[in-house]
Inverse folding.
């Protein structure tokens, strides 16, 4: 076990630092923060630090896959709070899918502007009748002449209200078997027939939506993969440098905030951090977080050696969901009466950031549902990880 | 960055696992568990022949000169097999001499511990929560008098390292005048506990004792963590195996989602613990500043997980799980030992909080 980076990587780290010293934070004050960020990103791509797995012709820096270099870059960028890649579902899900399965023209048209954040995507998978049983989806795509005509309804579509395009699963082969009748279509959101209606969430905001599609049109060749192969296309995994320990880092940050909250909260005239039960809870959560973090390190090590991460990867989501919940729960206990308030509100005389923790408390539930529920995750761990028999009623491909 | 064990370390674990599979399969484990002494001389000799008597003992004293991580990995594998015998106390006695002994003491005892010619143990507890060096009360200089509780395999041990008032360490020989050992009915029959009564017993003070008793305790916490991880992992395997073979309602019970989810939860709790004890052992050897706190975190978290997984495993086995006949109970009790020995999780969590400056 050697937790240091080899000399090669330390040399790489000092290159990254030199680059960052020269370019971040930006020295000119005339341009807007947005422009500065966009310019910095472009410089970072040219230097080979962002969009590493993306070919140059599509706007990336086309570097060899190297998870350790990616980790060094992440550490150094985070240290000086420099902007990383544009976040979101477009760069995170659509781009790798296109790179893996898309047509040449699709890559040329969509990858670069998506990576630059100029076009924004939403993911149209779930439907009112199809959540965990996604392959039962009913939204219809019919080829009429040179166009697909799409009718149906999507739901829980995050960010649809800001999206320029949707990547959408539609049933195009009604006579084919469940999984085999689905195609992966790209749809322009700025057209008649698309009706986005916000859904108010329990925390009061509206990040996701219902999307009604009535005679929506998309050109025949805006399909990724072949007709009827949409299910396989949607399963395309991100093979390249992935932010595999992102979750654990996120938990560590949240935990630091939690300790800070305990320190600032008063209980019986002293800091809650002095309360024995709070101390016990905090260390308990820290044990879980550390264990999760080290699993991330192990995964990274395995990836660097081209070994199968095995069962650890299957457990990641469930673990971070559990941790997120534990952190949020303790924060609510610390807030005491302040937790009687709605997220987003703030007591006039309070110095504590209530809204953040109240939101966190509610979001920890959203995360347990989004992208596959915790119970579905348990199925996957039980069946694929532990080799238990499959549920006969549930077909998966 | 390489967060992994080495090929040699994997090989060490495979070798021990193979030996355990041959020499201490469940049937043999059961015989020893039910036996008088909880000890099998042939099994012990076999472990010694594998070199486990002195994993951390420097080569100049006849050991393998390896690190605490290597010893912890051995403990993991022995924990997976619930291997009975004096390994825990023996390893800690060797570490105590390495850390705190004079050159003379090392020369006298370490080679004999490494070759298994003498068996060692440690005597820390004085009842309640008095496991920590700061709390030891047993007094006297080179003549020790008083009582120590819960000494693992005391009557098998030739030498016992005793914790003394102010966090000191002293070596006594079991055969010395004034040593009296009483059997206690310990819950874990794979690691028998005994009570030690000393009446003016001649002792050799370990000169560095008071400086390193805390470190010795940390090493103990780590060996327990590693044992707990190995045992918990084995319990998940045993429960999965049971779920794949036991039939109810015409199918194997692993089809049932309620059980499948319980098993998935167990596995999800256990797997990340591996890195926790690896890192803590690594810190013991290489990152002194983090060593004490990491050991406290590992012991409290992993032994809690082991206990919970042991409870879940009993349930997953149904009625048979609640019987003396079922091997799960052997692990269940080992989990109780790992959790309580050297102090309950809550004690170490509070220490971790203090160490964080909270
Ligand atoms: C914050 C948030 C953002 C989202 N963003 C998007 C998005 O952008 N695009 C998109 O397409 N979707 C999105 N979703 C939808 C999400 O993927 C689904 O909500 C999720 O897959 C669950 O489907 P469902 O809501 O229909 O619940 P159901 O499938 O009806 O599940 C209800 C309960 O039944 C359980 N259950 C169902 N089947 C099984 C089974 N076989 N075994 C065990 N338990 C089962 C589930 O675990 C759950 O507890 C989002 C959801 C949330 C909460």
């Amino acid at each position: 076990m050697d937790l240091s980076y080899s000399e090669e990587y330390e040399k790489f780290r000092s290159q990254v630092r030199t680059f960052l010293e020269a370019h971040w934070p930006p020295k000119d004050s005339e341009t807007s923060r947005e422009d500065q960020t966009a310019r910095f990103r472009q410089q970072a791509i040219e230097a080979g630090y962002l969009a590493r797995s993306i070919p140059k012709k599509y706007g990336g820096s086309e570097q060899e896959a190297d998870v350790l270099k990616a980790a060094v870059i992440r550490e150094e960028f985070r240290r000086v709070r420099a902007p990383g890649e544009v976040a979101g579902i477009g760069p995170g899900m659509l781009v790798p899918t296109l790179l893996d399965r898309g047509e040449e023209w699709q890559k040329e048209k969509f990858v670069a502007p998506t990576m630059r954040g100029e076009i924004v995507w939403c993911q149209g998978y779930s439907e009112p009748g199809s959540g965990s049983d996604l392959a039962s989806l009913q939204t219809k795509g019919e080829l009429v002449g040179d166009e697909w005509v799409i009718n149906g309804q999507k739901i829980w579509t995050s960010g649809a209200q800001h999206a320029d395009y949707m990547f959408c699963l539609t049933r195009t082969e009604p006579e084919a078997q469940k999984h085999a009748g689905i195609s992966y279509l790209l749809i322009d959101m700025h057209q008649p027939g698309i009706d986005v209606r916000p859904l108010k969430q329990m925390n009061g905001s509206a990040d996701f939506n219902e999307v009604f599609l009535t005679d929506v049109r998309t050109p025949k060749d805006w399909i990724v993969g072949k007709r009827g192969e949409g299910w396989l296309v949607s399963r395309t995994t991100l093979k390249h440098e992935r932010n595999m320990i992102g979750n654990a880092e996120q938990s560590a940050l949240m935990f630091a905030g939690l300790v800070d909250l305990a320190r600032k909260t008063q209980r019986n005239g002293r800091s809650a951090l002095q309360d024995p039960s709070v101390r016990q809870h905090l260390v308990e959560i820290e044990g879980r977080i550390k264990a999760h973090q080290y699993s991330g390190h192990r995964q990274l090590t395995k990836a660097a050696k081209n070994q199968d991460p095995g069962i650890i990867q299957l457990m990641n989501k469930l673990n971070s969901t559990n941790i997120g919940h534990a952190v949020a729960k303790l924060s609510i206990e610390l807030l005491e009466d302040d937790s009687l308030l709605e997220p987003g509100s703030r007591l006039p005389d309070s110095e504590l950031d209530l809204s953040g923790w109240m939101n966190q408390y509610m979001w920890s539930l959203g995360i347990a549902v989004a992208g596959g529920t915790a119970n579905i995750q348990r199925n996957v761990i039980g069946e694929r990880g532990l080799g238990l028999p499959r549920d006969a009623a549930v077909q998966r491909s | 960055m390489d967060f992994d064990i080495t090929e040699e370390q994997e090989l060490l674990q495979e070798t021990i696992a193979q030996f355990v599979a041959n020499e201490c399969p469940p049937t043999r484990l059961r015989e020893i568990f039910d036996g008088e002494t909880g000890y099998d001389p042939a099994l012990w000799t076999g472990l010694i022949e594998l070199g486990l008597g002195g994993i951390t003992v420097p080569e100049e004293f006849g050991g393998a000169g390896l690190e605490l991580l290597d010893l912890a990995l051995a403990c993991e594998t022995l924990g997976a097999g619930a291997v009975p015998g004096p390994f825990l106390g023996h390893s800690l006695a060797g570490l105590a001499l390495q850390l705190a002994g004079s050159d003379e003491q090392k020369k006298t005892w370490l080679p004999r511990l490494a070759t298994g010619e003498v068996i060692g143990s440690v005597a820390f507890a004085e009842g309640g929560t008095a496991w920590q060096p700061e709390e030891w009360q047993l007094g006297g200089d080179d003549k020790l008098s008083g009582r120590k509780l819960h000494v693992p395999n005391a009557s098998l041990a030739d030498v016992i390292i005793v914790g003394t008032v102010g966090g000191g360490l002293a070596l006594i020989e079991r055969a010395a005048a004034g040593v009296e050992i009483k059997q206690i009915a310990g819950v874990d029959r794979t690691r028998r506990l005994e009570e030690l009564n000393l009446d003016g017993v001649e002792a050799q003070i370990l000169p560095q004792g008071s400086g390193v008793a805390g470190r010795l305790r940390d090493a103990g916490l780590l060996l327990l963590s590693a044992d707990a991880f190995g045992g918990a992992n084995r319990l998940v395997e045993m429960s999965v195996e049971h779920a794949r073979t036991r039939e109810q309602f015409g199918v194997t019970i692993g089809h049932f989602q309620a059980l499948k989810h319980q098993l998935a939860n167990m596995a999800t709790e256990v797997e990340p613990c591996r890195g926790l004890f690896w890192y803590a052992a690594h810190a013991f050897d290489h990152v002194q500043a983090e060593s004490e706190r990491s050991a406290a975190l590992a012991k409290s978290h992993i032994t809690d997980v082991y206990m919970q997984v042991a409870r879940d495993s009993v349930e997953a086995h149904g009625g048979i799980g609640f019987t003396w006949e079922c091997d799960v109970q052997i692990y269940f009790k080992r989990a109780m030992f790992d959790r309580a020995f050297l102090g309950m999780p809550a004690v170490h969590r509070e220490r971790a909080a203090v160490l964080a400056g909270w």
Remarks:
- Chain B touches chain A at residues 1-6, 69, 236, 240, 243-244, 251-252, 254-255, 257, 260-261, 263-265, 267-268, 271-276, 278-279, 282, 297-298, 300-301, 304, 346, 349-350, 352-353, 358 (CB under 8 Å).
